[in-house]
Amino acid sequence: MNSELHPSKLGTKEYWDKVYESEITNFEEIGDEGEVCRIHRFGIESVKNMVKWVTDNVPISTNPSVLEIGAGNGALLFGLCEAGYPATSLSGIDYSPGAVKLAKAIASSRGYEIAFHACEFLHEDPPGLSHTKREVLALWDVMLDKGTFDAIALSEKDEKGNSPATDYPGRIGRLLKSGGHFLITSCNFTEDELKKLFATTETGLVYHSRVTRPVFTFGGIKGSAYSSVAFQKTPC
Ligand SMILES: C[S@@+](CC[C@H](N)C(=O)[O-])C[C@H]1O[C@@H](n2cnc3c(N)ncnc32)[C@H](O)[C@@H]1O
């Protein structure tokens, strides 16, 4: 795990609860849907890129079940809905009840029947879709993360110095269907770091592809503002 990352307020639930409290007020008062990640270095553009990756790689005709972890205001799932994925196959979880309330309010204002649930991903199994069997755990054809692993990696470490993010890749592998895809966008981890963390025998994931994104040059060194990488769970 990236030992360079130091705990910050972005890794606390209190921080996100406060953010969404004010976002809900803005939505109720002036209809501003908010865009949490505009204050965290990536926003609309990464939503577009992630939606494009999904449409290019996971056909709408297969009616894939999709879970976004840490869905915030739901913008990424709304993007998938607009691209033609059936809302009833899309689900978003977030541990902040304010995020769930905001995403539900926006979904309802747009007439989208996407499921949003309060769920702490590291310790609770996300509820399945209404039409999936409850006893099945590996429910998801596609799992998405935009900024959530980043936030978890900024949480306080335990007494042994381990980050809570250490458990995250294994939980993805456990909940993803065989052959399913996990697409993650991060501004704290490089593509190589993401590969090392997620493509392991424990997760059963292998590297699939990267999302093409803008590259900047600074001091003669090429880099990009964020990494978007896709993994696939090895088909049985
Ligand atoms: C950087 S924001 C990204 C929100 C959204 N994906 C977006 O791109 O706008 C991180 C989100 O993860 C949520 N989150 C952080 N840790 C979580 C956890 N352990 N379980 C579920 N949600 C979590 C936060 O409440 C927050 O909404």
TrEMBL record:
Its EC number is 2.1.1.-. The keyword Methyltransferase applies. Keywords: Cytoplasm, Methyltransferase, S-adenosyl-L-methionine, Transferase, Transport. CDD domains: AdoMet_MTases. This is Protein-lysine N-methyltransferase EFM4. It comes from the Eukaryota. The keyword Ligase does not apply. Transmembrane segments: none annotated. Gene3D superfamilies: Vaccinia Virus protein VP39. Its main location: cytoplasm. S-adenosyl-L-methionine-dependent protein-lysine N-methyltransferase that mono- and dimethylates elongation factor 1-alpha at 'Lys-316'. May play a role in intracellular transport. One of its GO terms (cellular component) is cytoplasm. InterPro entries: Efm4/METTL10 (IPR026635), Methyltranfer_dom (IPR025714), SAM-dependent_MTases_sf (IPR029063). GO terms for molecular function: protein-lysine N-methyltransferase activity. It is found in: Cytoplasm. GO terms for biological process: methylation; vesicle-mediated transport. Residues 63-203 form the Methyltransferase domain. Belongs to the class I-like SAM-binding methyltransferase superfamily. EFM4 family.
